[in-house]
Known about the structure:
Layout: E1 14-20, E2 24-31, E3 43-45, H1 52-69, E4 77-84, H2 112-120, E5 124-128, H3 129-142, E6 150-156, E7 160-166, E8 169-170, H4 215-229, H5 240-252, H6 256-279, E9 284-289, H7 296-308, H8 314-319, E10 321-324, H9 328-347
Helix pairs in contact: 1-2, 3-9, 4-5, 4-6, 5-6, 6-7
Amino acid sequence: MDQIDVVRTPASWVVVGLDNGGTCNNATVLDATGQYLVDHLVENPSLVTDGPESAVEQLAEAFTGILALTSTPLTLVRAVGLDTPGPASADGVISSKGSTNFSQVSWHGFDIRGALEARIGLPVIYNNDANAAALYAHHRHFGASASEKSSVAAIVGTGLGGGVVEGGKVVGGAAGMAGELGHVQIPLHGVLEKDQGVPLCNCGFEGDVESIASLTGIKNNLLPYWLGKFPDHPLAQEPINKAAKLLRGYGEKEDPLALAVFGQQAKAIGKLFTIAANFTDPSAYFLGGGVVEAAPHFRQWFLNTVREHTQLRAEQQAAATFALVPDLDMAGARGAAVAALDRVLTAA
């Protein structure tokens, strides 16, 4: 969806949303009336590969930059929402083993939420990036009735992130690791071909959703198998990492190999949503990630395939909807802002 470059000044007190990524930070402002003050990406380099000190300083610059852009006085800011890629605790402490974006030893066990809070002197509310996107999708889709609805979101990227929203709030879990939908193991009947080996995830699990429905799953498991079936395919001449990234373009052209791979991904997500249907029975199933950024006919085909392979009872089919995560490039920052706004209102 094309974004209109609009900047508003606040009509009330505000919260700020900061989305931290491997390359860039994205910032937004949400006022107490529920209006976002920017309608486009506002980014600065995240510098996460330079280590925690540089990265936290860049987040602080993103914060001050978005206030300047929207003519928002610091005194109007009640809280800041922050999201980062996981895994991390509910309090924003990066996993002791690090992660894809936080691989340096200095990041292991680092309290990024606490560090930013100390740097800017305001309360910081943390979510992982998939939870933030799921929260935004939920509130954008349901609007005023968001607090009465539930949803499950699968965000397909390098891995598979997810989020479970109940009553308008993200389900965090005891350790903050609820909604790690990528590591739910699924029945593989009807997903894999008879001669296809059980896919292995980087987490060590066999046959979880991420081992199939992710860029990593394509590279490690799906594409090597299907290239064996299509040995003359142009992607067979490319390094596997490059071939995996090029595959979506072939899918948009309805290439048979690409549709076979993405069809398996959609079936795997359908199995995941079937489990969700019997576990939480959500009001909506959201799909986000790279597929949402694809050509409209391809992303609709993918969503339709997911829906076709989600086994719902007639009552559930009548009650639930399937939709794409909107404004994906801004969904993280906006969801982080929603979480901050909710925390402020709950405290009040």
